[in-house]
Amino acid sequence: MQWYLKVLKNYVTFSGRARRKEFWMFNLINFLIVLALSVIELVLEIPAFLSGIYSLAIILPSLAVTVRRLHDIGKSGWWILISLVPFVGAIILLVFECLDSVPDNQYGPNPKSGAASDIAI
Question: What are the helix (H) ranges across 45-102?
Answer without folding.
Answer: 49-72, 88-98
